[in-house]
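Sharing a chain and its predicted structure for anyone who wants a worked example. Both blocks are below, sequence first, tokens second.
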Amino acid sequence: MEDRRTAIAILLIIMTVMMYSEMVLAPTIRPPPPVGAARSASIQGTSPQTGAAQNGAGQYGAGLRSSAAVLPGVGAPAAAEQAPSPAEIRAAPSITVDTPYFIASFTTFGGRLTSFQLKDHRENLQDTRLLDMVSVPENAPLPLGIYSGLRSDLRTTYSIASIEPAGSTHLTSAPIFVAPDQTLAITMRGTLSDGSAITKTFSFQGSSYLFNVAAYLEEPSTDGTSLWLEWTRFLPESVLHDPIDPWTFTSLSDLSKVQHVQLPSITLDGLSQPMSTQWIGIADKYFTATLLSDQAGFNARYGRVGPLFLHRVAGTPSEGRFSLFAGPKDYRVLQQLGNQLERSIDLGFFSFLAYPLLILIRLFHSIFHNYGLAIVGVTLLIKGLFFPLTKASLKSMKAMQDLQPEMQALRERVKDPTQLNQEMLQLYKRRGVNPMGGCLPILLQIPVFFGLYSALLHSIELRHAAFGLWIHDLSVPERLEFFGINFPIMILIMGVAMFYQQWITPMPTIDPAQRRMMLIMSALFPVSFLIFPFPSGLALYMLTNTSISLVQQAYLRSDTHKSPGRATTLASLGIFVIAFVLTLL
């Protein structure tokens, strides 16, 4: 393999993987076709509200009332129950739990969540509202509904049986505070439509996003159907098809295999076939609502009804003990909870490198208190560590370039391919040149490149993290507008630098056409950033990487006696100082 072909292949691989990650971002696994699927009408209004609950096994109320959505294995509604109106939900007593991590509000009409706000996260950068994990339209089921055969607690009016350790069953508008070292258990009791009793208990710890949900049926389903707990989520089309922040159903099978199903790929109404799993959640790039059960290898399902996505986990016919994690996909937080929950963060094939690099980024942030500076610092450190490989690669490419006259003479003199290869090998050996010496050092760096790329692309730490100047959120594409036109400054600078870097790169060929192709490809790489906008944190990494690579290459090719290693150190220091100054502006 000649160096020029390897270089082309490497560049193509990098461009393909990065474009694919930006367009797809998660493995697309076609979900199994739903069984018993039924059509449902579209919801007329798409604005989420927190005062509507509806029957997950039957009609979804006014907006979805044109036909009943019969979910497989759960049965049709026992009666055509009217969906609770927002006024009915507001009229029912409610209870609010305030922990250091979230504020959760429950309605006693159905015993379901009306809101779950994360204290450390906002809806968006310009909004002061806390991010709410509950999002459903009017006349649709709220999360944490219980289903058993033909029954559900859709219209069950619960009463508070106990609040421990508070001990009072009298509800007020004031929230119940749970300190980091405290626990709280709220038990509700009610009656299903068939007259059977149901008990529902929510247990909270002040030190975690995770809380427990337990349900007990006095009379299990006669056909032995399991009790199911459901989580629902409404997504408007603009959010569902967002290429920057994709939504997936993510689950961990009994074989410890993670499965990601992109929500846009689910086109039919209904639920999937039951599958044995350890946990299942609905998630975007940064947050997840994941259901677990205390049973090993419990059954789970996922699917959609109209624009509403839902997933369920099963208990026994008479009871179920479940847990819910509703919060950020923070690797440290998820890892501490066990159950391999950290694997819900999809860092790709090179996750074994991405995780340590995430730790390194956090370390730099703890020192400089700016994730932009942390990205610059980690990039410069990696380039410094790989400098010996970069030096060896350029030295080999330069040696191959110097051999071109002799190689061309061999091609003109020897016409037999077998003999030509033998003559070439003898020439390499005689001149002490390794034809693979230019590409092997680059290949060794590619896993680290992809690991850091994945870490930056999926790191929740970058969400709403500012760098400086116009870059106020490293998790979204940079925007600097003049006269209504967006100018991605970092990408434009990076494009110029990459083109110049390729221009001065030693080419082990004298074919002008091949050189032009390499120059064109170096220009297409930053263009891909414009077609498929990358988060500004990635653009900052690429700009830093390109800048220091250009300095290294310039000094390695120069005829001066200046040390390229010293030049790399001084240039790295200069780049970091410039980045630091930008954070002050």
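Comments welcome. Residues 35-340 form a domain with the Beta-galactosidase; Chain A, domain 5 fold (CATH 2.70.98.90).
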